[in-house]
Amino acid sequence: MNELLLQGLVNGIVVGLIYALIGVSLNVIFGVLRVVNFAHGEFIVLGAYGAYFAQAWLGLSPLLAMPLIFIVFGMMGYGLYFVLVKRLARSNDPEHASLLVMFGLSLVLGALMLLAFEADARSLNFTLDPPFLMFGNIILPTTKLLGLAVAVVVTGALAFFLYRTLPGKALRAIIMNRDAIQIVGVDLNHLSALTFGLGLGLAGITGILVSMIFPSFSPFIGQDYTLIGFIVIVLGGLGHPIGAVAGGILFGLAEQTAMVFFSGTVAMLLGFVLLIAVILIRPAGLFGVQNSR
Amino acid sequence: MPMSAPQGNTEKSSHIKFLIWGIVVAAIVAVFLPAPLFASNLSFLFYMMLWITMATSFNFVAGLAGYMPFGYVAFYGIGAYATGVLYKTFGLPIPVALAGAALAGVTIGLLVAPTLRLKGVYFGIVSLALAMAMKLVISLMPSDITGGSLGLILSAANDPVAAYYAMFVVLMGALAAGTWLTMSRLGTALRAIRDDSEAAEVVGVNVVGTRLKAWIMATMFPALVGGVEAWYTNAIDLDSSFNLLVTAKSIVYAMAGGLGFLVGPIIGASTLYGIDQLIWRHFPTLNLLILGVVIIALMLLLPRGIVGAFAQRFSRFRRFIP
């Protein structure tokens, strides 16, 4: 097999797991709240800045910054739910209203980051010893391996939470039937706010991984991550948390392979074409079983 | 709801509504038609017309048909590029190039028309993805056609006053299309579909055909606007032609005025663009921040816009508002 292709596939799995995390957190929020978080990419970039400043000011390594950022972002999400999301449920057309509010939030966050951090791209000063491992002719930077491990652990923890714990089961129950869950005495507001917090906390962690694995980040790239997230959740099925993992890896592999043979532009175009084709042909997503329309 | 109006008054109220609309259009003509003779700041008025047209035409799909096309900017960008390529690469005169832009917009609109069967967020996401894909496709085209990363410069066509009047004609066209889409039987059909498409189908409304008419109008005008703007500024490049802010501003201006009303986008665009200009000149970065804050505040505090809030507060006048 072609070595370049093999390298592309390996990169695809690493990048794909990051994409999966973006999709999982978007889908948790969409599934429970029916809110498409247009500002997700901006929260991811904010997480990357969080890792940067945790290192610059507190001397924390990105790994140690993770729980801190998860908690800070989680609390931010819990509060934002009551400020922004809760009121939307009363509007005439909650889906469109939520799209627009989150779109507005993404502009606000992008502009605030531009004002606070300025336009230059930054990168995290983070290396491990040894800097990379060789498998035959395949080069694997150790930071990427570490990122991969973290992504696997976080996804596994989330799956455990969703399928094995009571709050996680309640959360999945909301996705399945919003009305019935209120009858059995679940505090919908509290749980919804926790979900938004969980989604943003995961976005923050994803941001740290982004800062470790991708060469740089800037206030402008949030939109790109949001779009990647959209592609991933559509591939995996809207509102289907674990489907997004498959969608993310699939898109990561497709993108990185396309980069080997063509260019980054073609890779991105491929993503959009995949998204449009899947929505038109199979709106429940490639792996979705439930009717999420 | 206008349904509560007594039957005998319906005709009278629609006459008054039409009269008010006539006065609004006459006022717009009176402001913009003679302006180049007096105004020192032509650019301000040019962009005011541009945003009124963009918001009005956005209203055709968002307010009248109930879709939220986040990729609206794609038609604007296609119009700009079609004009540039036809003029510069193929050497056609500007009016022909602009007609080509309109045709390109409508053609792409028809190609993506199958997405109209998607609802809510699905439509929004696909529309956005299509706009991004369109931008990437143009960037992959050979640079001797589209100018590559440098874009196209149309300095030979420079004629700001002619471009100003071209925008005026496009604006009038958009207002005429709005009149057609709201005040004819088509308007009744569109409202019925937006409120309950299944019920409308049952009573014999041609759902697909009616939506398509609104959609074609909503794809043609941004393409024309993009083309005229390219002519006015003499420059086309990918990042400004496919800038998502074009969608954002169209949404904000249309919503601030009030979706679903003909006068909504006009009031929203002229007020907010005026304010925007006062701020933009001094603080370019803040512009983006304020745009975002305005979207959030509008959705949370004034979701029906200025005109919509007025119509709700004084509901007996609602049937007179065009």
Largest sheet of chain B: 2 strands, antiparallel
Number of domains of chain B: 1
Q: Share of helix among residues of chain A?
A: over 70%
Question: What percentage of residues of chain B falls in helices of 4 or more residues?
Answer: over 70%
Architecture of chain A in CATH?
Orthogonal Bundle
* CATH class membership of chain B: Mainly Alpha
Major sheet of chain A: size, sense and barrel closure? Answer: 2 strands, antiparallel
Q: How would you write the strand order of the largest sheet of chain B? A: 1-2
The outline of chain B comes out as globular
Residue share in β-strands of chain B = under 5%
Q: Oligomerization state of this entry? A: heterodimer
Low-pLDDT sequence parts of chain A: none
CATH fold category name of chain A: ABC transporter involved in vitamin B12 uptake, BtuC
Q: What is the gyration radius of chain B calculated from CA atoms?
A: 20 Å
- What structural class results from the helix and strand content of chain B? mainly alpha
Main location (chain A): membrane
Subcellular location (chain A): Cell membrane
Keywords (chain A): Amino-acid transport, Cell membrane, Membrane, Transmembrane, Transmembrane helix, Transport
Pfam family, one (chain A): BPD_transp_2
Write the layout of secondary structure elements.
The complex is a heterodimer of chains A (293) and B (322).
Chain A: H1 3-33, H2 40-58, H3 62-88, H4 94-117, E1 132-135, E2 138-141, H5 142-164, H6 166-176, H7 178-183, H8 188-213, H9 222-236, H10 243-261, H11 264-281
Antiparallel strand pairs in A: 1-2
Helix pairs in contact in A: 1-5, 1-8, 1-9, 1-10, 2-3, 2-4, 2-8, 2-9, 3-8, 5-6, 5-8, 6-8, 9-10, 9-11, 10-11
Chain B: H1 7-32, H2 35-38, H3 42-62, H4 73-89, H5 94-111, H6 120-140, H7 143-146, E1 152-153, H8 160-183, H9 185-195, H10 197-202, H11 207-233, E2 235-236, H12 238-241, H13 244-257, H14 263-280, H15 284-301, H16 305-313
Helix pairs in contact in B: 1-8, 3-8, 3-11, 3-13, 3-14, 4-5, 4-6, 4-11, 5-11, 8-9, 8-11, 9-11, 13-14, 13-15, 13-16, 14-16
Subcellular location (chain A): Cell membrane
Pfam family, one (chain A): BPD_transp_2
Main location (chain A): membrane
